[in-house]
Amino acid sequence: MPTPMSPDRPASSTISPAEAIEALGRGTHRLEHLRALSDLGRNDVRLLAEAWPDVSADTKAAVLRQLEQIAEDNVEYSFGRVFRAGLNDPSPVVRQLAISGLWEDESGDLIDIFVDLMESDESIDVRAEAASALARYADKVVNVELDEQSAERVRESLLDAADSGFQPELVRRRALESIAVCGGAHVDDLIARAFDSDDTATRASALYAMGRSLDRKWLGTVLTEFESDDAEMRFEAARASGELGHVDAVSGLSQLLGDPDVEVRQAAIAALGKIGGGGAIRVLQGYIQACPPSDRELVDDAIAEARLFETDIRAHA
To answer: How many domains does the chain have?
Structure first.
């Protein structure tokens, strides 16, 4: 007897991609129409390109938001070809959503597209989104997963944007966050300058960049911000300490478990899981006895992650 298909699993739809695209053009699409837009073939991409200009900006934005959520909820759906249709859209909101929706696409051709958008799009938000999207390619630079020409394009464009006197502050911040993983004297100088800024958002980006750099020379600076009066700084410090992964952060993170700001508290939970080790596990086990119900699943996950780390240590001892 056949096993029933899970409702969360993509199934063969009675709606064809062409019908879904037609419904999109009419503005009468339903959830099943959106699901039918997964893995479009070449002919369907052509149909989408023909229909796309006649769809209202509001409808396109709403569709892209829904598609991203569907893809996040179920990795078997892939809407990359729809998001690519939005990269050159007249609406800056649609362009920004299109970049965001391509978060899983690591195709090399997107490097030039994202660099061009970061450098010259009329919308600051689009430029900033493109700078953030280049982070995954900066990771590839570090892991030597790009050819030298592409790697240089990523490094130089992000460094130029992060150190530009012409780019808006938001774009410079996002570029710095992305390039931080590549390290180097120039990057270190940019991080230090950002942390010395009078602007809290810029200082928070510097903390994020410190964590992303994976360089423990920043640990002391990060730990001092656990006691900041600003919740955004405490949040970024907690997150950065998890990336740096040093046991010296455990004591301070244990104090942040009592933080009145839920995002700070949950960042501390996640950081303890990343750091791992017996001390982090004991802190998390103690906290789970009295934590709010909203934190319980996060604590369980953090304990499991911390134990995996401890197991790996023993296995390689």
So the answer is: 3
Centroid of chain to Cα 234: 19
For 90-121, the pLDDT digits (tens) are: 999 999 999 999 999 999 999 999 999 999 99
Q: Does residue 164 have a pLDDT over 80?
A: yes
CA distance 272 to 6: 34
The pLDDT-based confidence of 312 (bands split at 50, 70, 90) is: low
Question: Which residue, of 43, 72, 103, is where some domain finishes?
Answer: 103
Tokens of 111: 């490097």
Distance from C-alpha of 196 to C-alpha of 198, rounded to nearest angstrom: 7
What CATH number should be reported for the domain holding residue 244?
1.25.10.10
Give dist(CA 191, CA 286) in Å, integer. 35
CA dist list (Å): 130 to 85, 92, 120, 172: 16, 12, 11, 11
> Are residues 53 and 68 both part of a single domain?
yes
pTM for this prediction: 0.91
Distance CA 151, CA 278 (A): 39
Q: Is residue 34 helix, strand or coil? A: helix
DSSP 53: G
Q: What is the pLDDT of residue 308?
A: 86
Phi first, then psi: give them for residue 197, nearest 5 degrees: -65, 155
pLDDT in tens, 218-240: 999 999 999 999 999 999 999 99
